């Protein structure tokens, strides 16, 4: 069995999804979530399997025609990242082939045409991708394995069940980190003959013709895709931002966050590499706070999507919160805004409008502001179901790091108390945690944040 040939650190991050006879063709790595050549356990698993079987190695990526409301600017970021990735892989004599269509079926059919010997794919619990994996397992002509290259501790090892809170998850994952938070081996080049007969990277220059995505938001000029840009941002954060992270992270008016989430989302940056570099720095309140977000909170979101079949829907919220929200379903709302008013930042709350403008223009809203933003949508919607759908729609359409377990978990926390506890009861919110403008004003300079985003809006007009 090919997996037995994997090095121990790669093997323990990999699990077999489908067994069966192997073809005489190449080993395929279906890359989806982790779009990088370096620090990629899934690519390493495919590499070692190809070596053990003496077969060529091919990397496939399938461009889905639509994905959870992603817009053209998301597809543009993805496409440019793939172009850069193709060059990085080519330097190691590993070809990247781009497919288009329904991902699981397209990869399965390509595996048939190549008489593939083995398929390795990325672990990804995002709800929309469940059908992709099912389609692959149904159509693949050979064994299929998945490798968790996105989490530091593979999600199925970190916990065997859906966790109630960050506290319960932290107690499980923290003792494991010393054995899992290691350096990551560099993949060695394949022989030049590995490229013989391969299909060149065929991502069309005019790829929008292949997708049916809305044209949402403005061009993203402040951020560049790819592994090099991600590594540069990580270095900048380590040198200039980490020291004051604990102090500045909850002030949306400051540049106190790492800014790494878009690259982590697209897989241009490894969370394990990031955590390894942070741990190599001085142990401080800031480094501990950052690792809490990067490891516990981020991997808790994967835990939720892995074990909750209804993740990403209102029914996936905790029962206590849904019951409490239902009890307050008919409470008067201070305002009611439809999705168009929300999308256009036309509310009575200048702080909320500033957060929405930040997201529309930059494709990235400050983390604290995103919590406030989602909770106000609950307060201004005619039902909690409507609020959940609106928040998820806007998050996925505009955020670079939307369409992700973190986005689902964050909105589920804000609107439905996921991983939280009941709070004192109040109108509309019931026992779900409440946030308001005056509370924000006590925490940071709200006026400065509003002015910053008003200036941002004027600069693009």
From TrEMBL:
<keyword id="KW-0227">DNA damage</keyword>
<dbReference type="GO" id="GO:0003677">
    <property type="term" value="F:DNA binding"/>
</dbReference>
<dbReference type="InterPro" id="IPR014729">
    <property type="entry name" value="Rossmann-like_a/b/a_fold"/>
</dbReference>
<dbReference type="InterPro" id="IPR006050">
    <property type="entry name" value="DNA_photolyase_N"/>
</dbReference>
<dbReference type="GO" id="GO:0003904">
    <property type="term" value="F:deoxyribodipyrimidine photo-lyase activity"/>
</dbReference>
<feature type="domain" description="Photolyase/cryptochrome alpha/beta">
    <location>
        <begin position="25"/>
        <end position="155"/>
    </location>
</feature>
<dbReference type="Pfam" id="PF00875">
    <property type="entry name" value="DNA_photolyase"/>
</dbReference>
<protein>
    <recommendedName>
        <fullName>Deoxyribodipyrimidine photo-lyase</fullName>
        <ecNumber>4.1.99.3</ecNumber>
    </recommendedName>
</protein>
<keyword id="KW-0274">FAD</keyword>
<comment type="similarity">
    <text>Belongs to the DNA photolyase class-2 family.</text>
</comment>
<dbReference type="InterPro" id="IPR032673">
    <property type="entry name" value="DNA_photolyase_2_CS"/>
</dbReference>
<keyword id="KW-0234">DNA repair</keyword>
<keyword id="KW-0456">Lyase</keyword>
<dbReference type="InterPro" id="IPR036155">
    <property type="entry name" value="Crypto/Photolyase_N_sf"/>
</dbReference>
<keyword id="KW-0238">DNA-binding</keyword>
<dbReference type="InterPro" id="IPR036134">
    <property type="entry name" value="Crypto/Photolyase_FAD-like_sf"/>
</dbReference>
<keyword id="KW-0285">Flavoprotein</keyword>
<dbReference type="GO" id="GO:0000719">
    <property type="term" value="P:photoreactive repair"/>
</dbReference>
<dbReference type="InterPro" id="IPR052219">
    <property type="entry name" value="Photolyase_Class-2"/>
</dbReference>
């Amino acid at each position: 069995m090919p997996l037995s040939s994997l090095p121990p650190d790669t093997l323990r991050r990999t699990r077999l999804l489908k067994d069966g006879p192997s073809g005489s063709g190449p080993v395929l790595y279906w890359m989806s979530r982790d779009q990088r050549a370096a620090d990629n356990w899934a690519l390493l698993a495919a590499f070692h399997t190809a070596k053990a079987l003496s077969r060529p190695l091919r990397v496939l990526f399938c461009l889905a025609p639509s994905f959870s409301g992603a817009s053209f600017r998301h597809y543009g970021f993805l496409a440019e990242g793939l172009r850069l990735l193709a060059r990085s892989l080519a330097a190691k004599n590993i070809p990247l082939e781009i497919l288009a269509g329904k991902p699981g079926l397209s990869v399965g059919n390509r595996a048939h045409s190549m008489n593939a010997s083995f398929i390795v794919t990325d672990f990804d619990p995002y709800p929309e991708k469940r059908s992709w994996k099912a389609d692959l397992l149904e159509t693949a002509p050979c064994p299929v394995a998945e490798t968790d290259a996105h989490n530091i501790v593979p999600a199925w090892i970190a916990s065997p069940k859906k966790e109630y809170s960050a506290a319960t998850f932290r107690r499980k994952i923290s003792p494991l980190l010393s054995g899992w938070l290691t350096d990551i081996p560099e993949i060695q080049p394949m022989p030049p003959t590995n490229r013989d007969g391969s299909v060149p990277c065929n991502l069309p220059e005019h790829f929008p013709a292949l997708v049916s995505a809305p044209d949402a938001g403005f061009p993203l000029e402040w951020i560049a895709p790819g592994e090099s840009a991600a590594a540069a941002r990580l270095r900048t954060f380590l040198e200039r931002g980490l020291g004051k992270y604990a102090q500045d992270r909850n002030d949306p008016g400051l540049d106190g966050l790492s800014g790494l989430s878009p690259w982590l989302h697209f897989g241009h940056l490894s969370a394990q590499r990031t955590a390894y570099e942070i741990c190599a720095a001085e142990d401080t309140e800031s480094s501990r706070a950052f690792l809490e977000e990067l490891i516990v909170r981020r991997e808790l979101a994967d835990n939720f999507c892995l074990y909750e079949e209804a993740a990403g829907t209102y029914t996936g919220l905790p029962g206590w919160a849904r019951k409490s929200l239902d009890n307050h379903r008919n409470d008067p709302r201070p305002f009611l805004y439809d999705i168009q008013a929300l999308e256009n930042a036309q509310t009575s709350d200048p702080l909320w409008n500033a957060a929405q403008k930040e997201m529309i223009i930059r494709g990235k809203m400050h983390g604290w502001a995103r919590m406030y933003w989602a909770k106000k949508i609950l307060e201004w919607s005619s039902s909690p179901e409507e609020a959940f759908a609106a928040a998820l729609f806007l998050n996925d359409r505009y955020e670079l790091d939307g369409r992700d377990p973190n986005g689902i978990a964050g909105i589920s926390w804000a609107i439905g108390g996921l991983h939280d506890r009941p709070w004192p009861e109040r109108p509309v919110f019931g026992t779900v945690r409440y946030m308001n403008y005056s509370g924000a004003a006590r925490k940071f300079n709200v006026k400065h944040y509003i002015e910053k985003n008003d200036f941002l809006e004027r600069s693009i007009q």
